[in-house]
Design a protein that fits this description.
The chain is an alpha/beta fold. 33% of the residues lie in helices and 23% in strands. The longest helix has 24 residues, at 207-230.
Length: 692
Amino acid sequence: MALQRIDDPTRVRELCAQARAEGRSVGIVPTMGALHVGHLALVARAKAENDLVVVSVFVNPLQFDKEVDLVKYPRDIEGDAAGLATVGCDILVTGVLCGEGGFFPECSTAEEIPVVDAGPGAAGLEGEHRVGHFDGVATIIHRLFEVACANRAYFGAKDFQQTLVAEHVARGLNAVRPELGLEIVVCATTREPSGLARSSRNLRLSPAGRRAAAALSFGLWRVRQAWRAEGVRDPRELERRFAEELESASARLGGDLPPIEVEYAAVRDPGAWSAEVATRDLGEAGVALTAAWVEGVRLIDNLMLSGPALAPELETEHAAKQAERIEAGEEPGAGPEGGRAPSDLRPGEEAVVVVAAPAKVNPWLAVLGKRDDGFHEVELGMLALDLEDELRLAWQSEPGTLELRIWGPAASADIPADSSNLVHRAAVRGLAELDGLPPGHLVVELHKRIPSQAGLGGGSSDAAAALLGVLELGRLLGAKPRTLAFDAGSATGTGPGEAAIAAALASFGSDCPFFFTARHTGFAICRGRGERVAPRELAPGHAFAARALLVVTPNLACPTAGTYAALAAGRAAGGDAPAARGPLSTEDPPFNDLEPAAFAAAPDLATIAARLATELPAPAGASDWLLSGSGSSLFQWQAPGATAAELDERRRLAAALCEVEPRHAGLHRASHRGVRVLAVETAPQGCSQVAE
């Protein structure tokens, strides 16, 4: 069934009760919105295990001990709905706290709501530092469990004490309503490339803040290493090492980064929770937990210490390599040095690489003419955005042919899943480059978040990600590249192996090499088919980087062909040659000389643009609405200083003014990164979610 968005919890309660009466199972995923890949993984699992999946998106005021955190909490209900539709959510429930349309319609004020006991898991640590927080959590999830009549409720492992509270609430509810049989399902934490646990709060961190926060995961990994490799069980000794590692990791990451203010670095017995550190050695169960402040944002994380020892190259050595790379200012996530030998890929296993492929926008684009090979000669600036597709490349031990699977909010019928797809072609090119692959076949799963007909996500970044991901996968499997290789010690991509990679990417299209050549800056100028991609520095304080970009993509077919045809026809009729211009620079204002031709080729876009310009004029200091190079997206460069709420309101109004359902409407900022490896590991086949 299609996603239903219902703003009345009472109505949802009726639908879920009916489902249970019909013998269908119901799963609920309680969230406060601003959903990321970790949330969507919870929903995907809920969908696999239940007939009906309900996701609540409600910023619960009962669990905030500081008003400022409640006000600052990120909200993006339209983006949340788009993401949920891709992973099988059936009902998105929102509402207010009290009264009509509320989660507590029987109460007129928050003070009238009966507080639900949070149980012993709320004692200490989070309960001590956030007084009343878990009472608010217990109260709202108790009501959500009732609203959904749930068989199962899904929580991420990142907030360990919250999972203890949820289990306590479920036991109490089951005692009163045994017919529910409510089960709490705890799912693994997903992580960013540095190891930082994914959280909606991460959106409030600067790039430097996110880098500094990587120290938290370093500390957790080191404590788990002491537990598993050295057999340390004294909780006080583990906490001492934990604190030391947090301090040393923070220092190693760089003195120019924002400081980390650690609230606690604790070790507890997960099966016998106590507010106090144990006075005796722990048995066979342990969990390390931490909370810290970075740039005024409070972050929490934890890691189970107990469990089977992992392969050394996938845990201890890889964590150390990650630390070394980040300390050196390099991209993390490049994986264990040397990888596992091909013979180590056992039946039923798969080697996995997860790669992020960012969108880009052309703040300027000019067509200079047509070349002898049939391609247009263009001059354009390319800027990476904070909107990404994600590719999961898996080498499975069973024989077979290359498989390409495409899903996600921007997956559509116009994206082929066969050999005509750039991703497929790039993956084949990478495989042909590798000697010594073990028996098996490649499976590529493309999570498409960037619309292909939107002037974004035409496939170039995905192709670059596929080629680079296959090379990384080959390294993990011990295969040797013939010519395409990352040159040792090269940070600029000037060595012969990296030049060969750039040339291979250029063969796929005009801007594929941008995502490799400009991976350290996220900004470049290009001409022709992409053979000449010149990375440029774009400092965080630069005008382009400081502005937020509002993207509105009407649900229209991409009129690229018409755009170029109209431009060519106009020049042929007037006998005009391309105007000679000097080289572009990073100080040029955004412009696009395809705009008039695109408007002529797509009158609907001209109407939409005129309406936007009239009813939503640009603020002082920003340009008017601009058209993208492909002619189907409308952009506006917002002036620096606009608040998130102001930008979100403009996005909402712009989408409404288009009078069509936008395929994508969002706010983005320039990012200084290219294709990135997020994770490498060997895992059982069929794993649908790789923890990052």
